[in-house]
Design a protein that fits this description.
By secondary structure, the protein is an alpha/beta fold. It folds into 2 domains: 4-214, 3-Layer(aba) Sandwich (Rossmann fold); 218-300, Hypothetical Protein Yjia, Chain: A,domain 2 (2-Layer Sandwich). The chain has helices spanning 17-30, 71-84, 100-107, 127-131, 138-149, 164-177, 198-210, 231-240, 292-300; strands at residues 4-11, 35-40, 58-61, 89-93, 116-126, 153-157, 182-185, 218-224, 245-253, 260-266, 269-275, 282-288. α2 packs across α3 (100-107). The chain is globular, with a radius of gyration of 20 Å. It binds guanosine-5'-triphosphate. This is CobW family GTP-binding protein.
């Protein structure tokens, strides 16, 4: 089955995410691709939904941030979209205060992770805001930096008011934080679609595979077990796995029990919860430097193969 591409549009409040989305939708429609949009806003009413034309499926997640309070709602909306429409791509516009790891996490429900192909995180940076970042609280500055560090593509936007010297200084700063991401300077978030589409990200992925140690971007890996797994071996795997795996979630069944468990792992803490329904045994991993082949082999080794 063809997977649906997912793009996460990240960036601080007012950086130009909606402007970029409009540019992208115009270009996607010219290519006759079927696109859907999920917009997340902190307020109770949507401000930006008019930016999306009526013929584009749109789901709005209001009054909270998908990276924390309404993470579950994003899963529901994504699932519904996959059922209702035949899509080529889904663009998710996050709130300005969303944390990239948590958003990626919210997109990757083990129930449908195999149907989605998260192509990457595109972060917009408001050039002026970046220059004035010392006016922000420490937490927000940290967030601004995290949004840049984890991006696959950074658009340094609103460069219209900058001098050439200022531009060069900001480019150096951003490249210092994210040397492997692609960086483009934009005005009104104008960028050809081909610069941010699968070919670009795909090429980079290929590049990453051959330079794994240099890859600093968030990636996911989806593993489906066909047999129950050995608890001791699985816990050994958890103890020994690289600390660049930030998050694991999904469903597993152990050889010592007939029950299914919802498994959650974040910041070093594993959690097992009994599930009422028997689920497909799928685990989603999120982290940096994910070596898919090694993970696949290590996870296959914790399965108990019945004869
Ligand atoms: N001068 C200038 N203004 C811009 C540029 N890009 C976007 N804007 C304006 O900046 C404002 C905010 O842009 P949006 O696209 O709404 O930003 P956003 O990131 O979606 O904002 P939130 O949803 O509030 O987080 C709008 O008034 C845009 O027209 C640019 O390159 N230069």
């Amino acid at each position: 089955m063809k997977k649906v591409d997912v793009y996460i549009l990240s960036g601080f409040l007012g950086a130009g995410k909606t402007t970029l989305l409009q540019n992208i939708l115009t270009q996607e429609h010219q290519k006759n691709r079927k696109i859907a949009v999920i917009m997340n806003e902190l307020g109770e009413t949507s401000i930006d939904s008019d930016a999306v034309s009526k013929d584009t499926p749109l789901k709005e997640l209001l009054n909270g941030c998908v990276c924390c309070t309404i993470q579950g709602q994003l899963e529901v909306q994504l699932n519904q979209m996959l059922h209702e429409y035949e899509l080529d791509a889904i663009y998710i516009e996050t709130t300005g205060v969303a944390h990239p790891i948590e958003v990626l996490d919210a997109c990757l429900s083990p129930l449908f992770a195999e149907k989605l192909d998260v192509k990457g995180i595109i972060t917009l940076v408001d050039a002026k805001r970046w220059q004035d970042q010392e006016k922000l609280s420490i937490q927000l500055r940290k967030l601004l930096i995290e949004q840049v560090t984890h991006a696959d593509i950074v658009l340094l936007n609103k460069t219209d008011s900058l001098s050439e010297n200022e531009k060069a200084k900001l480019v150096a700063e951003i490249q210092g934080l994210n040397p492997n991401g692609k960086l483009y300077m934009t005005e009104h978030a104008k960028i050809p679609l081909s610069f941010i589409q699968p070919k670009q990200l795909g090429e980079k992925k290929h590049h990453e595979q051959s330079h794994v140690s240099k890859n600093l971007h968030l990636r996911s890996y989806v593993h489906t077990f066909t047999n129950p797994i050995d608890l001791d071996q699985f816990e050994k795997f958890l103890r020994e796995m690289p600390d660049t795996i930030y998050r694991i979630k999904g469903y597993i069944t152990f050889s010592h029990s007939t029950e299914s468990f919802l498994f959650q792992y974040s910041y070093g803490m594993p959690l097992y919860m009994k599930e009422q329904i028997k689920r497909k045994q799928t685990l989603v991993f999120i982290g940096e430097n994910l070596d898919h082949e090694t993970l696949k082999q290590q996870l296959a080794a914790v399965e108990i193969v019945s004869n």
